[in-house]
Structure formats: structure tokens, C-alpha cells
Amino acid sequence: MKLNYKIIFHFLGLLLLFNGGFMLVSTLISYIYKDGVTFQLFLAGISTLLLGASMMYPTRDHKKIMDKREGYVVVTFGWLIMAFSGCLPYIFTGAIPDFTSAFLETMSGYTTTGATILNDIEVIPKGVLFWRSMTHWIGGMGIIVLAIAILPLLGIGGMQLFAAEAPGPNADKLHPRITDTAKRLWLIYFGYTVAETILLKVAGMNLFDAMNHAMSTLSTGGFSTKNASIAYWNDQPVIQYIIILFMFLAGTNFVLSYFAFKGKVQKILKDDEFKLYLSFIVIFTIIAAAIIYFKADPTISSIAHPMVWGEAESALRHGMFQVLSVITTTGFITADYTLWSPFLVVFFFGLMFLGGSAGSTSGGVKVVRHLILIRNGFLEFKRALHPNAILPVRYNSRAVSGDIVFNILAFFILYMLSFIVGSLVFSMFGLDLMSSIGIAASSLGNVGPAFGDFGPVDNYASLPDLAKWWAAFLMLIGRLELFTVLILLTPFFWRNR
Asked: What's in the GO CC field (predicted)?
């Protein structure tokens, strides 16, 4: 069967219309703040809208049938076309005149990675900064749609488990129609963004910074309007606690937020993934805070000799903030955690492979996959002693099918292979060991800050051009669950059946 190219181009045109519309919102922000680039942003938005319309109009008579192959193409090329068109505001305004750098910045935005090539963020026009944060917010919305409406239908990765919690055939689904489910989760996503904006404004941020950081937080992106990221507000702990709260919510399955608003708290407390996610955060925060409190160099960490409560609170806050930032793949920083202690360098590197919950805006492997892998691993010991026993892996008191377990095992193997190959390629571009493995893990997990020459206080500007394209590729495959993109690279995918 041939691919239905008309429906593919129609959907891609629709995505361009959305992208152009959001660019016009950034144009309005530029006009309000009189930053001098209003016309350039308007031109970028109109150009994107016209391109989208030129793709949609000729394909308006498409057959309204989409199978799995078209789904894979729309998801992957949709992200690519959003990234390519999303470069226009940077290029038209001159904020990032180099196309390769602009593409990396844009892909980092849409994939909610948060890695930047900008050396001085604070001189960038406000309209462009707003667009930069908007790419995060759009990407976060897109991930919710993928998780709810598309990936379960394609049978990709561990998302079938999430499908069983939301739009699948069971009593816990939010609503019978997938589109209505996505709308409800979008409403929660939007509501959280507005709520965080208000709280940050009340806590002391100006409105512009509050809007941008709310969009970055809820998308687990990490772009900031300040060169020092959230460390800019180290003297305002309330701001950091607000961001901690919303990073936690953004890294949680959005279906659980829906249950919370419906008063179904027991569903949340009984959710296996949520319990493990919360346990990880609590345990890892205690470890990080204790090491900061007792071991960190006070001249580096800005945490003085551990004698008074204020210093203990600071250790707890910084530890919790960075643990959540890395686990949820947000990438905000309050300090250069690579200087706290060698143990914490390895510790945070390991957390890059964890990820938030399925059905959240976080990147990474996802907690639910780790949970299934751990449980299956323990069952292998029992199976060795009782080879004839039927011992299924259970998740939320339900047996998980063998197909899903094998799929998760395949995902994890492919993820680690992608990390190894990614590191090797970066080393070919002349990066040292720490930088290579750090940027590979960070790009693939959509974390942002890496290690070595690309640590929390550095950026990706010094990467060679080819390495920037490679980093963008890793960001894309990591964000789209590996299989979605990599299957397009296989010859049999394109054969007509």
C-alpha cells in the first residue's frame, strides 16, 4: 500500500499554521515591549502561515484515512518542519544569524531540551526570548498529544501502559474520545502555566520573566531569560520553591492531575509509577542535600559552614531543585552542581537516564520503564527456581503483556546503544570523554546541561557545526521515543506493500 502523501502534507501544513500563529503572538509581545524586531517577527509569522496554507489548500481533498506508516511520517516530519520553520524568527531578527545554530536552538526548544548556543541571553529582544520559550511550550503540548492520541495507536514503547490509564478500553479512561482527552489535558497544561505565572509574579518576578519561566517549567524545557538561569533568584527562595512544585507536577503523568482535580486522590496514591517517581525524588534529594550540607565547598556552592538552619535549608533547596531539574529533564540550574563533589557529578549523570513519568512533558527513559524492568528482573530469579510457573509482571495490579515487556527491553537496549553511538560520534568531532558522554546523555534525554565543556554554566556554542546537527538529531530521537524516528531509516518502511 502506498503512503497517503496528501494527508501527510495536509497535516504538516496544519502544523505550520499553528506555528505561524504562535509567531504572531510573539510579534504582539515584541510590539508591547518595543524591542525593535516587531516587523521581522511579523514577517516570520506570515511566511510560515503562507507556507502552511500553500500545503493545506492543494491537499484539502485528501482521503481521511491514516495508518501507522503515515502516523510515523507525520510525527517525525512534523517535528522537523516545526523546527525548520521555527528558525525564522531567529534568522529574520538577526538574534542567531547562523542557520545551523538557529536550528539547534529551535530543535532544543521544541524537544524541550533547553540547551542553548546563546552566550548572552539578556541582550536578546524580548519578542525573540518569548518565541524561544514558546517553542518549549508548543513542544510540551505536542508531547501530550503524542502520548495520548498517537503513540498508543502506533504501539510504540512503553506508552501502551499510559494508554491503558487514559484513552484505552478500560474504566479509568478520562473520556471515550481521544481528542476530548487531549483537550482536557491541554486545559490542565494551560491552567498550570497560568497559575505558575501568577505565583512567580507575586513572588517577585516581573511579568515577562514569569510568563517565560512558567512556559519553560511546564514543558520541562529549561530556557531562561537570564544568563544565570534560576540562580539569578538565589536570594529569593520562594521563587525557587514555586518552580520546584511545578517541575514536580510537569514530570508527573498529566492524567493523575486530572484525577486530582476530580477528587480521585486514591487513584494517585495507588499508581505504581507515581509512588516510585515520588520515592526517587525524596531519596535522591536527601542524598544530594546531605552531601551539599556536609561536603560542598562553601566558596563554590554559596553554602556556608553547616551550623544554622538557613544553611541547611539552602542545602535542601538546592539539592531538591537540581534533583527535580535533572529527573524531569527540565535543565534549570541554581548552581554549578559539577563543582559540589565528584560523587554528585556521577550521581547527576546517572539521573539523566531516569526521566519523569509517562504522560508527562519530561524526556528520558521514563520511570514506568524502569519500574517494569526492575520487576521483570526480580521475576527472572523466581522463574529460574520455578521454570514452569506463570509469573507475569504486574503494573497497577494488572498483568503486563509479554509484548510490552519485550518492547520496553528493546527500547532500553536501543536507548543505551544510541547513547554509546552518540558519545562515539561526539568524540570523533574532537570532544573529550566527559564532554562526549555528557552531551550525548543530555541531548538524548532532553536534559540540557551536560558535563565537561558543556556543563551547567556553559552552553553548546562551541560545538562544531556537524556536532550541532548530531546533537539536534539525538534530541529529536530522544523526544520521539526512538522507534518513531529510527523506523523511518529502515528500507522496509518505504517499500510499497
From this structure: plasma membrane
Q: CA-CA distance, 455 to 439, in Å (whole number)?
A: 9
Grid cell 524568527 in the structure block, residue: 89
Residue type, 169: P
Q: Mean pLDDT in the chain?
A: 86
Q: Read off the C-alpha cell for 43.
A: 514577517
Residue 28: what are its φ and ψ, rounded to 5°? -65, -40
pLDDT in tens, 188-215: 999 999 999 999 999 999 999 999 999 9
The pLDDT confidence band at residue 144, using thresholds 50, 70 and 90, is low
User: Per-residue pLDDT tens for 244-268?
Assistant: 999 999 999 888 998 999 898 998 9
Give the integer Cα–Cα distance in Å for 250 and 215.
11
Distances (CA, A) of 203 to 206, 313, 447: 9, 18, 26
Q: Is 170 helix (H, G, I), strand (E, B) or coil?
A: coil
Beta strand 394-395 pairing with 398-399: antiparallel
What kind and span of H or E run contains 469?
Answer: helix 465-479
What is the residue whose three cell numbers read 498529544?
145
Residues tagged in the binding site annotation? 112-113, 221, 329-330, 446-447
Apex CA 203: angle with CA 200 and CA 207, to 5°? Answer: 45
**For cell 538565589, what's the residue?**
234
Segment 36-93, tens digit of pLDDT: 999 999 999 999 999 999 998 888 776 766 677 887 888 889 899 999 999 999 999 9
| Residue 297, pLDDT score | 53
Cell 536534559, located at residue: 447
Cell numbers for 351: 539521573
Instruction: Kindly list the distances between the CA atom of residue 476 and the CA atoms of 58, 104, 383, in Å, as whole numbers in the listed order.
Output: 29, 11, 38
d(CA 404, CA 162) in angstroms, rounded, equals 12
- Distance of alpha carbon 271 from alpha carbon 85, whole angstroms: 40
CA distance 61 to 7: 9
Find out whether 247 and 217 touch, Cβ atoms under 8 Å.
yes
Secondary structure (3-state) at 394: strand
pLDDT in the model for residue 148? 52
Backbone angles phi, psi at 457, to 5 degrees: -100, 5
Cell of 276: 516510585
Calculate ∠ Cα 455-458-463, nearest 5°.
95
